[in-house]
Amino acid sequence: MSRINSFLRQPIVVALVLIVFLLYLGEALSPGFATGGQILRLLIVASLLGIIAAGQNVVILGGREGIDLSVGGVVSLSAIIAGNVMNGADGGILPAVGACLAAGAFFGLLNGLGVTLLRIPPLVMTLGMLGVLQGLLVVIRMGIPSGQAAPALSRFVTQPFAYGIPGIIWLWIMIGIVMALMLNRTVFGHRIYAIGSNEHAAYMAGVPVGIIRIALFVISGMFAAIAGLCLLGYSGTSFANVGEQYMLPSIIAVVFGGTSLAGGKGGYTGTMAGAVLLVILQSILTTINIEESGRQMVFGATLLLLMMFYGRGRAMRA
Amino acid sequence: MAETATVPSYRRAGGIGRVLERYPFLPALVIVVALLFLNGFFSPNSLSFRALTGLLSTYMALILLSIAQTYVVYAGDIDLSAGAILSLVNVAIVVLMERWGGGAGAVLLALAMGLLLGLVCGLVNGLVVAALRLQAIVATFATSIFFTGLALYILPVAGTPAPALFWRAYGGRFFGVPFVFYILAVLAILLAVLSRTRLVTQLLAVGDDPQAAYQTGLPVVATRVKGYVLCGLFSALAAFCITGDTASGDPLVGGKMTLYSVAAVVLGGSALSGGWGTVVGSLLGALTIALVNSVVFFMGTPSEWQNFVQGLAILLVLMAGVLAGRRGRS
Amino acid sequence: MSKLKLSGVSKAYGATLALRRGDLEVMAGEVHVLMGSNGSGKSTLCKIIAGSVRPDSGRILVDDQPVTITGPRSARAHGIGIFYQELSLAAHRSVGENISLGRLPVKAGVFVDRSELRQRAARYIGLFDGVSGEEFSAEALVGSLRPDQRQLVEIMKALASEAPLLIFDEPTSALDRAQVERFFEILRDLKRRGRGIVFISHRMDEIKAIGDRVTIIRDGETITTLNLNDTDPATVIRLMVGGAGDMPASQSSVPAVVDAERGAALTVRNLSGRGFSDVSFEVARGEILGFGGLHGQGQSAVLRGIFGAGAVTSGKILIGEESFDASGPRKAIRCGCAYVSGDRARDGVISGRPIIENVTPIHYLRDRLMIARPRKLRHKVAPALQSMQTKFASLFHPISSLSGGNQQKVIIARWLIDRPDVLLLDDPTKGIDLSAKADLFALIRQLAADGLGIVLYSSEDAELLGNANRILVFNGGSVSRELTGADRTRYNLYQAAYEAA
């Protein structure tokens, strides 16, 4: 009995149960909500959020109050870069991917260096970097047109790719597998958990703490860059600050997936479920016929309610 | 047994360290003075009384919001809903003033309701974070969505004007002195009074080491809740200023200000981990942001580069703030 | 009159039973000593009285009235004040504020009464006038004080509660003689005024000097309460360690001095750094070199320095014939140096992660592995754990599910997959039970027999005497005496440790 109980309390199980519940609820509220095509559309949006959350996830797992507020900026930047590099031509996709990844890695590296070498708290460092990125976006947008997604990229994101499922969802599943393998089956993954759980003990056991932490921010920047590229494919053209709306939701998706903001505990599979949960919730709120204000209030209150399921802090008294 | 005599396992702060220990906002003050100098260098006019008054009335809201943020940061918490509270109070008082006729009585009553609203929002945050023990970052983000929803409910689109009486008073002069300076004076007194309260000492003790504070017998949960309430009240005051400055209601006006308030707190030398900081520092931090923006403008930076240079400058002073603050604490 | 009475109090943290059955009765006007080895449950008992730990069962009576203590505030309301072993100070607040933090004096309902705060601070600081050291004032920030001064602040804070019942959990560990003397005068005065005092210390002389009665706790259970006048230290120690009192030290044959012909495993010449200066020694292969002396005389600092985790300013280190200069633990590990800390929670345990991940990091580093294949590593991990009879249900259970002793065995096991040349043990048995200690020392002797050079610092003399071939006694950061052969007696060790004090 207690085994069933503890199984049901696992964040990922909570998230999956809630997802099924919300799909039923959505279908009841607006018939047609839970049809295959509709679910695929939801999953496309969830994959955009989920890819950003992958980077957010590793940064948070690495502990020391790890968080990356700059992902929103990197997503927007990457979308603009990609739009201009490919400029509507399929041949430009590969160079665009390279340019975006380089840009994401660069800003991630700066974050990582600030956090490790200067020991700036991640929240402060990435917040400042967000400001820089926003400024940079203005500069770029003034100088050049917003650019167009290559048709192949748009197809990849929005049209069925294999077995009727769009390429971006396949990409997300692949990222899920790679992340699971990386976290559980590589020394690097074990070291992420080690520095997140007890940084000093990890250092004493020979874990290169600083290098790992820098790598986490670089990974986060690169995932945000990939998401920006996909976002361009999703919307066809890049517009200002597209990425910003994903910044805090990416953290919530990680939390809903059962990863502790204190670090060292959690994984990416849960985060994927968390991203889907968040997107379905938002989608239900858009289908029901209420004002934007009511929608936001219900959304905020529901988020709070759901947080009650996940990693509440410990009481002061042991 | 004289182990401490031969084994120095401690380190005393040096000269600079000791000064910083006493006045942690000093680096922020130096930066503010330097920025004022730069402003004067690029455009002597920008240091005119009129220009500075304008700067103050525009950034008074951010100053108050940063002070609001400081009280929760004291206790090691954070409030990502401060800007949403500001928006909510902004639209609430504008709508109330309009509904009640825009007279002096209506304005005062609406302001009282605004304060009450800020208090309730702060209380909600406090209960959610301290009593329910949810993570401050994500929980206050969720409440910020809720508060924004409420603001949109009260006023779906920006635009309702504030009564002329209100914004004329805010932008006007009394006995030849601009109104914002009265605000600044009252604020100075208020902050001085607050700094002597038991609550502020308890907030700092809780932020210093929550477990130790609990073991000492401090009411940790109640103290943190009160910190959020204080934050809510100051956010409401910030809303009054933004209403005076923009003379209208906008349900999304504060959204972008939250992260700036966090930045201002860090610029002021306070530690986000809690237990260390000053409200004066946050005030200077907010001024730093204001002056950076103005310097970048007066330097003649091409308009498209302004945001970038501002962002870069703020990132650099943020890093400087953290490093200097650590120097003072070590 | 009974000030406080506890009966049958227990507390479990998950599977670990911290306190099985705690009984204690403290009278008005007595200093009641609590004794027990590390991890026997003394601190848990104190924290239950002070309200910061919730007991699972048992009854608490204050002034013969049954009470329920719901938290530290309620404990204060019931007249209980406490000195916490790990201190409960706010580092960025002043000494004066810290002294009064528990009940800040208030003016007009909301303001801190600064003048009352100052007066109160002056009163309690005055108690330690002359012994509190330089730059100790009400305005000083606690974080800038020396460890002994911080301990004094915690004492003042406990005293300022003016509680009828005061608990002092190891209040003297960092204090010097004069400070302890002054503190005892204050305690005697409180005694005269009818306060009840619970006192914990590991120093026998202090207990004799101040205590009236002693309650002995072993393995989470109250054994007995004795009048200190009617007993002698030997009896107390025997009761503390129980039937197994003579192990693991003297039951096995005392090791002989190893001849250095097998060559030096570790050579240290004129090593100086933070907390130690001019330390030289040599450890032969197969030798266990003991570090003795009072706590905190530089033993840990030397070991950490060699391992690259502490500051070294000058000197030379050789592992085998190779010169060795560890810039950090990574380098040290690659060179075949191993370090086990007694502070498991801080330096060792990767909390919340599976046992296997706690065993493998050194192997990954030394073999430069990229891919983690836990199931493939099983046959390497299991023998390492079994060599110490580590008890665990599965390699994939979290390490936190184990008892302290088994956790420490896991930490040591991580060094056994790829054998190091030098093993540095920094008080490795702190807070673990006797059978685990026996297993550990059996292994350590085996490792020495296999040819490792081992340095063992232990805060327990018996462990050194029973296992070390030679003992270096540390005092004030340098080696004050070397004990070899027949000199390795408890008396000599004790004398060498105290001679400079």
TrEMBL record, chain A:
Keywords associated with the record: Cell membrane, Hydrolase, Membrane, Plasmid, Transmembrane, Transmembrane helix
Listed CDD domains: TM_PBP1_transp_AraH_like (cd06579)
Protein location: Cell membrane
Pfam families registered for this protein in UniProt: BPD_transp_2
Membrane-crossing segments per the record: 38-60, 67-86, 92-111, 123-144, 164-183, 214-234, 246-264, 271-290, 296-313
Enzyme Commission code(s) on record: 3.6.3.17
Lineage: superkingdom: Bacteria
GO CC terms of this entry: plasma membrane
Membrane-related topology note: Multi-pass membrane protein
Keyword Membrane part of the UniProt annotation: yes
InterPro entries cross-referenced by the UniProt entry: ABC_transp_permease
GO molecular function terms attached to this record: hydrolase activity; transmembrane transporter activity
Name assigned to this protein: Monosaccharide-transporting ATPase
UniProt organism field: Sinorhizobium medicae (strain WSM419) (Ensifer medicae)
From TrEMBL, chain B:
This protein's record includes keyword Acetylation: no
UniProtKB keywords: Cell membrane, Hydrolase, Membrane, Plasmid, Transmembrane, Transmembrane helix
Organism domain of life: Bacteria
Major place of residence: membrane
Protein's UniProt keywords contain Metal-binding: no
Record-linked InterPro entries: ABC_transp_permease (IPR001851)
Entry membrane topology: Multi-pass membrane protein
Single GO MF annotation: hydrolase activity
EC number: 3.6.3.17
Pfam families in the record: BPD_transp_2 (PF02653)
TM helices/strands, residue ranges: 23-42, 48-68, 80-97, 103-124, 136-155, 175-194, 227-245, 257-276, 283-301, 307-325
Cellular localization per UniProt: Cell membrane
GO cellular component: plasma membrane
The protein's name: Monosaccharide-transporting ATPase
Native source organism of the sequence: Sinorhizobium medicae (strain WSM419)
From TrEMBL, chain C:
The entry's keywords: ATP-binding, Membrane, Nucleotide-binding, Repeat, Sugar transport, Transport
Recorded GO MF terms: ATP binding; ATP hydrolysis activity
Record CDD domains: ABC_Carb_Monos_I, ABC_Carb_Monos_II
InterPro entries: AAA+_ATPase (IPR003593), ABC_carbohydrate_import_ATPase (IPR050107), ABC_transporter-like_ATP-bd (IPR003439), ABC_transporter-like_CS (IPR017871), P-loop_NTPase (IPR027417)
Originating species: Sinorhizobium medicae
Gene3D superfamilies associated with the record: P-loop containing nucleotide triphosphate hydrolases
Lineage, uppermost ranks: Bacteria, Pseudomonadati, Pseudomonadota, Alphaproteobacteria, Hyphomicrobiales
Alphabetical list of PROSITE patterns matching this protein: ABC_TRANSPORTER_1 (PS00211), ABC_TRANSPORTER_2 (PS50893)
Sequence ranges assigned to domain ABC transporter in this UniProt record: 4-244, 261-501
Entry's family note: Belongs to the ABC transporter superfamily.
Protein name: ATP-binding cassette domain-containing protein
Pfam families per record: ABC_tran
